[in-house]
Amino acid sequence: MCEAYFPVDPGLGLEENFLSLDDILMSQEKLPGRAESALPRLAFVLGQGVGTGDSIPEGSKLEIPLWLAKGLHDSKRRIISVELPKIYKEAWRTVFSADANVVDLHKMGPYYYGFGSQLLNFDNPENPEIAQTILQTFISRFRRIMDSSQNAYNEDTSALVVRLDELERALFRAGQKGLIDFQCWEKGQASQITMSSMVQNYGKRKFTDMDG
């Protein structure tokens, strides 16, 4: 039987993969911003007008979907300016540096890593600090996530994943699948252990980058 949809992994770093449902959903996350010039016929799109021809006046505060913010952002023409969501600001970066494991990433933003990586597309003097915090947060939380996935066999895992962002949930699922596959192999129910699809896809990307 053929599957109706074959899952596609999200893009890496600054690039999105628009065949990935996760990236499509992540691109709908909104950024606070400001119109630096009048924006013709965009009021309805941004929920600030009743007609499709309404414009947004210069200086208006905005909540802009990521995909549109990237399209409008131009450092030379100053069409819009964007602000950092609070979870990426200095106050929260301090919390992450103290103990990243205490933060409910799914509540604060289900695409913390992917969305944060996309913010680096915008000219912001805090970009180096944002990138460093994202990396260190992932490193700090990774071991606990994988330990949890390896120690929960045939159990209800909902309480373990509720505070994880979508990337972390995918890692947890991969860890769970690896554990189940190993258990099956150990019991003689499988002839060999297969490589994780996440590892396979990452390897293919690395080879593609090298060929380019």
TrEMBL record:
InterPro entries: GINS_A, GINS_bundle-like_dom_sf, GINS_Psf3, GINS_Psf3_sf, PSF3_N. GO terms for biological process: mitotic DNA replication initiation. Keywords: DNA replication, Nucleus. Its main location: nucleus. One of its GO terms (cellular component) is GINS complex. It comes from the Eukaryota. It holds the Pfam family Sld5. The keyword DNA damage does not apply. Residues 89-185 form the GINS subunit domain. Belongs to the GINS3/PSF3 family. Component of the GINS complex. PANTHER family: DNA REPLICATION COMPLEX GINS PROTEIN PSF3. The GINS complex plays an essential role in the initiation of DNA replication. Required for correct functioning of the GINS complex, a complex that plays an essential role in the initiation of DNA replication, and progression of DNA replication forks. GINS complex is a core component of CDC45-MCM-GINS (CMG) helicase, the molecular machine that unwinds template DNA during replication, and around which the replisome is built. This is DNA replication complex GINS protein PSF3. The gene is Gins3.
